[in-house]
Amino acid sequence: MKVAVIRGDGTGPELTGAALEVMKAAGTRAEFIECDAGSEWWEKHRGPSFIPDESWKVIEGSDSCLKGPTTTIPVPGTPKSVAVSIRQRLNLYANVRPVKTFPGQAGPLGEVDMVLVREATEGLYIGIEHRLSDDVSIALRLVTKEKSTKVCTFAFQEAKRRGWKKVVALSKANILKVTDGLFLDCARTVAKRYPGIELEDLFLDNFAQQLVKNPQRFDRNVIVGTNLFMDVMSEEASGLIGSIGMVYSGNFGDTHAMFEPAHGSTPKYKGKDKVNPTATVLSAAWMLDYLGEKTQSKAIFGAVMEVVKEKKHLTYDLGGKAKTSEMVRAVVRKL
Fold it and tell me: Any idea which architecture 1-92+245-335 has in CATH?
């Protein structure tokens, strides 16, 4: 098994290094091939993409990709993000973020358990924008039947795999009647193939309000929606489990997959051995499960849960004083 490894920007290299250390301690048989990508590489070499051609060859020729956090420059004329580039090129249409309370880490709104599934290749993220004049700019939003059907099917399959009974489709179909109308039509069509699973459609703003009022209403639900909507909602949901540093994610297509923490590169903490490694480590563990190393994956998940529950080696965002490396060593000792 070959895994393309993108160490990333900012705190990415130390977090990715932590994940590699944990996977090797768990006994993985995967071969890790490092490749360049990110804004720090681009600042030195420039070009049309944050990903060089040599790295694309490694990524496309591997069985999976582990991507550390990368920085995207918010300036017109610079390349699209590393994650968006890989998702679109490899057709990774389903970005999946489980949001489940960790042992002993219940937030002020209580324990939660849900999965958020985001269409990850189109919507506003196609990046087609125009400056019509000095005072007017527009952006195009793409919603297709093909990708909407694929991501909704993934959501129902995920609910079926987990033994859950509800999928919630988010939209603003009362305002975006054509684009979100198409998305909802696809969700309803897919739902007919899963008679044991209920489909509920909610307006995005209503869901956002309920998520902070009564999040347990969505326990054991799979939430699915279009790209930007679910990007924002999954970030909001991450607050329910205390820290975005706890949210791991996978990006899935028909033939490829990429795994990454849900958070950014936090360059202000670069080299300070400070940030929470959980999301990156568990993204790597999920990748091992995807690659068939289910025993190693389960061991890593179990070790991380034990360390979090004990509260002896937690980083600052979890109320602890441990360094990144100290929390990682605690996980390795559990393994």
Answer: 3-Layer(aba) Sandwich (3.40)
